[in-house]
Design goal:
The protein has about 525 residues and is mostly helical. About 60% of the residues lie in helices and about 0% in strands. It starts with a helix and ends with a helix.
Length: about 525
């Protein structure tokens, strides 16, 4: 009885963990757990602490553990070693508002949080039923945040008077930041974070279900499933975030998924083979009736009516042409059609927002008409400076990098020669009167600069092992395994594309995806 109660309690806490994923900046967060001025305050930390004590720590002493954990533990070890090297080098901070030791400690705490999320998600599902349970509650969390985002669309469209003020008062109990009247933030810190959650955390599992015609729920009405409803709902909500990076990641993920990861359906049960002797012995099911011969050969038989062929409508002709297209070309047409529809809807929703319209209203800016001037005009100029500076830091410390969190202390010395007056974001980071904590805005640039070539190579090895297990499942003929393989590969693609917009270990989205891939591989991959 005690075991049954314990199992039920774990399921409740695990469901609470999955439902709490949308809340990324919970205001009621103790400073001992990273509160205070931190922008990343995931609500999932509370159920995660219970799961770590009840599940993760006890499992570390059991065998066998997933093999993909080996490169992950190796990466964590190398990251800690890289972070300790500045103390051996005698590096001194030139910033008055922050020193090296607190910065390194904070970075190691975020790495520990990422590791706890990944290991716990890897261990919680221990069989196929648990995988289905996890997937369903993951989608419940998606439904909750889509519902909240839909409520915010009301004030964007100005349907109900004073609705923005009502939502703002309720949002104060969910997030540390205020809402924007022209964009929606869901339950996240800001609109771009909300879009990142939709595209990098939930979209791979929804899109994988659509491509494989799989559903984690018992309910299905003909071709309609819960996942397809969530996909359409997600697309509508995503448009109102007006996040350029979010829409770009979504378009790329959908395009890659439709083009490369959609396999032809495989029959669950093969038709039994029947020998030719049995076919000959079996009587014919339908007797062929001979038509009476006509007396004159020029006249047809009386009981045969001449039916004129029906004229096909233009829709039928288009469908016939589309059906006869080669497989790859057919996928290109589908992916292109989806992207065109998304682009037109994004244009219609964002045409009243100057932040969005500048993407297609570019004119020669500051005396330049090249691509660099365009990116600077739409606000991407500082990111190229961050990336180039990160590469310069890596070139100076190629093996182990400068340690986690220490990119900030090398930014001013390694920054390329640019006119910062044209980029207020950079100017703000260089002025001594403000907080000058700077990140590289790119996950792999962050790895190269702070963990060096060795740490980055080990992390890439970790990703390759995840991709190997996902590819194995994708090649399976069983529908459930094929779904998990398809969704896992799409999840890895979403992570790689999304790395161009963030660089923090504290963002839980990729670690949840990595954990689900590890759990599915551990459960479904069987030795042949």
């Amino acid at each position: 009885m005690l075991t049954k109660h314990t199992s039920t309690a774990r399921k409740i806490v695990w469901a609470a963990f999955l439902v709490s994923l949308p809340v990324s900046s919970f205001p009621y967060f103790p400073s001992s757990l990273g509160g205070g001025d931190a922008s990343v305050r995931p609500l999932l930390v509370y159920p995660l602490l219970i799961l770590v004590l009840a599940v993760t720590f006890p499992a570390l002493w059991k065998k066998p553990l997933p093999r993909v954990w080996l490169p992950f533990f190796a990466f964590v070890t190398l990251a800690v070693i890289s972070s300790l090297l500045p103390f051996l080098r005698g590096t001194i901070s030139h910033l008055s508002e922050i020193s090296i030791a607190p910065r390194i400690i904070r970075s190691l705490i975020t790495l520990a949080l990422a590791g706890a999320i990944y290991l716990t998600v890897s261990l919680m599902p221990n069989n196929k039923d648990a995988l289905g349970f996890t997937l369903r509650w993951l989608f419940v969390g998606l439904g909750v945040t889509l519902f909240w985002g839909s409520l915010q669309i009301i004030y964007v469209l100005d349907i109900i008077p004073n609705w923005f003020q009502i939502m703002q008062r309720m949002q104060e109990h969910i997030s540390t930041t205020r809402l924007l009247p022209t964009r929606i933030s869901g339950m996240a810190f800001e609109p771009s974070w909300f879009a990142d959650q939709l595209t990098a955390l939930w979209l791979p599992w929804i899109l994988g279900a659509i491509l494989t015609n799989y559903t984690a729920f018992k309910w299905r009405w003909r071709w309609l499933t819960v996942e397809k409803i969530l996909f359409v709902w997600m697309g509508g909500v995503l448009l109102f975030t007006l996040s350029r990076s979010g829409l770009g990641v979504a378009a790329a993920v959908i395009g890659v998924g439709v083009l490369f990861f959609r396999r032809e359906p495989v029959r669950d049960q093969e038709t039994p083979k029947v020998s030719s002797q049995k076919l000959e012995a079996r009587p014919p099911k339908f007797a062929v009736q001979k038509l009476p011969r006509s007396k004159t050969r020029s006249q047809p038989a009386r009981n045969i009516e001449m039916i004129p062929p029906k004229r096909r409508k233009w829709t039928g002709k288009i469908q016939e042409v589309f059906t006869n297209l080669p497989g790859l070309l057919k996928r290109v047409v589908v992916a292109g059609g989806i992207l065109v529809i998304v682009g037109l809807l994004f244009f219609a929703v964002g045409k009243q927002n100057s932040y969005i319209t500048r993407m297609w209203e570019f004119a020669p800016f500051m005396g330049g008409d090249d691509l660099q001037s365009y990116f600077r005009y739409i606000g991407f100029g500082p990111r190229f400076v961050y990336w180039e500076t990160a590469y310069r830091v890596f070139d100076q410390y190629p093996l182990f990098g400068v340690g986690l969190g220490n990119f900030t202390f090398h930014f001013a010395d390694m920054m390329p020669s640019v006119q910062v007056g044209y980029m207020p974001e950079l100017l703000k980071r260089l002025v001594p009167t403000t907080t000058r904590v700077i990140t590289s805005k790119n996950f792999f640039a962050h790895l190269l600069a702070e963990t060096g070539f060795i740490g980055t190579a080990v992390f890439v090895t970790f990703l390759v092992m995840l991709a190997g297990g996902a590819f194995y499942l994708w090649r399976s003929d069983e529908k459930e395994e094929r779904y998990w393989g398809t969704a896992s590969l799409i999840g890895l693609v979403a992570f790689v594309i999304d790395t161009f917009s963030y660089d923090s270990f504290a963002v839980p989205n990729p670690w949840i995806v990595f954990g689900l891939i590890t759990a599915a591989t551990k459960i479904l991959v069987r030795p042949r």
